[in-house]
Amino acid sequence: MNLRFIDWIWHIRGSLTLVPEQSSEEAFDRLDPLFRQRGTSHERTYDTLTFRKKAQAPQDKMSIFDDGVLRIEKGEGGSVLRYNLTSRALLLCFLAPLLFLGFAQLTIVMGNQKSSTEASDKAKKEEKKEPELKLNPIDKFLGAPEPEKPKKDDKKKGKDKDKDKDDEKDDKPSPTPAYVFAAIFATLYIVGRILEDWLIKRLFRRKLAGS
Amino acid sequence: MDGIRVGKRVIGSQSPVTIGWENIPKVEGGPVKQFVFTWFQPAALFALLAFWYYAPNSIAKASTGIAIGIGFKLLLLALEWVNPRYDSWRLTWKELITDLFYVGLGYTLLRMVDTYIGDGAMIEAMQQSFNWDKLAWFMALPLLVQAFLISFMFDFGQYWMHRGMHNWYPLWLTHAPHHYITQLNINKGAVGNPIELFLIGLGIGGFFDFLPRAALLAGTLGLTVSIYQHINVRFNTPRWWRFLFNTTEHHSVHHSQDYEATRSNYAGTWIIIDRMFGTCVDGEAELLGMEGGRRMSVGETMTYPFTEGWKTIKERFGRSGSSSASEPISVPAE
């Protein structure tokens, strides 16, 4: 399979037109501080800069990228900086929803196993004892609500059969958080793919302009 | 670097640490900003305590607590944006997704493990066979006293677990990855090896779920005090607050690149426990982390206790390791 069709997931590519009087050397000189960060190594030839980053600090402005190539090409309308940058963080964020969907499935499977073993143990088990709570006179004076009566009292009255069913459900770990996190990571991937594309372009543009 | 003598030790000889409240910068800006960032912490604490104290039983539930917790964290993220303590700690997209990955593990995988083999399972077993009459005196106490005692006892246990992690090598191996963070943000408390998060989560806190309102009030102390350990916000924290409670300033000292500084401020909520045992250092630090600020990847965070532990075992008991056998590779909180 040709990776070109899917590598936009973890690659950020772009181009910037250099100002007419700016040479390749001058442009790379201006970008140079970005590659003098902790954990970053880089090589420069006349028109190409290749870099690699390892254990990059969060304070590194290019911390999201692990390696990349910057090339200056001469075209009809002047010189153009083209870049192709790779980000493992983008790839992992893209894959994270799958991991959390996996956790959701695992939660369901484990929950089913738990409820089947609990059902067989239920006859042996006593009801969970709960103490009866009374409000301290100070709390009564300050107006705190009275605590609820223990559930078994309600049960005796034959009221809360549905409530008990709900409680049983609550005993099982819910897969909902895993689904929520899958959705969060899917959303954050889209945000990151757009945001980081824009941020790196802005960073290169500012550095090339000398600010 | 000379460092500053605090009690018997010298703090800041390896990496800069500011010592003393009088040396810590104040909130900059207009009167409204000053007012907000001076009173935000106490206002949030008392507002939420009042909410849980008076909320009707139908609302005073754990699910409401989770919703409030998420909302409060979003608000604090906004505060980080508006008034950061250090620009070098600004949250980036990569830091956000990394932090959220660990938060996600906490809500899914760790919660599942906890239910089956952690304190969730132990507490359920204890509650099944507990004689409630023995706790009648506790249940008769005023709600806020109950909440204080639950919170303080839980934090007391956490203090010693945390201090143990900094002083006993096997426990340190699980805690070390958390010390590789190089900045503090709202979700950084979740960053670390899952074994550590499991160990630090063990505690008597969950035992008190039979006192729902007191447990929720105690949880509020965690939400509105302990949460500021990892936050990039400049506050003018009131004097009484920083005497009683842990703050982002205290915790930044604990995360400093300076070895002596890291051996302080172990409590999660009640810094007064550190004062009781002589481990409190009032101050702050900007340069955080280990090995001069090397960032640890998610993969290494997951495997670190095993790989480092294995290396140490080989050093100690391996055939070629006799010369350096007495030196562990990773020293607690260096």
Structural features, described:
The complex is a heterodimer of chains A (211) and B (334). Chain A is α+β, with helices and mostly antiparallel strands and 211 residues long. Chain A is built from six helices and five strands. Chain A has a five-stranded antiparallel β-sheet with strand order 1-5-4-3-2, with helices on one face. In chain A, a hairpin with a 2-residue loop joins strand 4 (67-75) and strand 5 (78-86). By secondary structure, chain B is mainly alpha-helical. Chain B is 53% helix and 3% strand. In chain B, a hairpin with a 2-residue loop joins strand 1 and strand 2. The longest helix of chain B has 24 residues, at 31-54. Chain B is globular. Classes of the chains: A alpha+beta (211), B mainly alpha (334).
Fraction in helix of chain A: 40-55%
Strand order of the largest sheet of chain A: 1-5-4-3-2
Number of strands of chain A: 5
Q: Looking at the structure, what is the overall shape of chain B?
A: globular
Please outline what is shown here.
Chain A is α+β, with helices and mostly antiparallel strands and 211 residues long. Chain A is 47% helix and 17% strand.
Question: What does the secondary structure layout of this molecule look like, with pairings?
Answer:
The complex is a heterodimer of chains A (211) and B (334).
Chain A: E1 11-17, H1 24-31, E2 40-44, E3 48-53, E4 67-75, E5 78-86, H2 88-122, H3 137-142, H4 151-156, H5 161-171, H6 176-208
Antiparallel strand pairs in A: 1-5, 2-3, 3-4, 4-5
Helix pairs in contact in A: 2-6
Chain B: E1 4-6, E2 9-11, E3 18-19, H1 31-54, H2 62-82, H3 93-107, H4 109-117, H5 119-128, H6 136-139, H7 143-165, H8 169-175, H9 194-201, H10 212-224, H11 239-244, H12 248-254, H13 259-262, H14 272-277, E4 283-284, H15 298-317
Antiparallel strand pairs in B: 1-2, 3-4
Helix pairs in contact in B: 1-10, 2-10, 3-4, 4-5, 7-10, 8-15
